[in-house]
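Two entries, shown back to back:
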Amino acid sequence: MKTEAEFYASDRPPHPKLPEDRPRGGGPKEPLVHPGAWSLMAIVAIIVLVVAVGIVLFP
């Protein structure tokens, strides 16, 4: 029976070296801004305003 270290080492090359698929650090960071973010927030604000005005005017 193999030990745990032998079991996990059996299918690996002697010196495994894989490039990182998500490298850390790096270049300049771009802000996470979606092009429709302001328009979507405006639509949601208008809907909330219409509902609030409807509640106030027609209790």
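entry 2 starts here
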Amino acid sequence: MAMERVATAMYLAGDLVPASKPKVIPGMEGPVGEVISYALWLLILAGVGGVIFGLIKLATSDKSRNSGGSEPFKWIGGGLVAVILSSSVIAIVNGVAG
């Protein structure tokens, strides 16, 4: 019963991540265009992972004055920058190819 719940949860989580269907960019046919497209989607996933890791560090960090309180915000900010930059590059590439 527990395995069915895990499988259902993974199936539903898979619907949250958009499918990476590379569009053919003029002048970049073949494996180069596909590799760039998949790399941008992996960068988005890495950025989301950085934001989640930063939120976990923020929730579990020592809130005293002697600890480094800015580190979780560095993770969150870096993850957000990665997501924003890669999604804007994907939008630009799709605009050029489409």
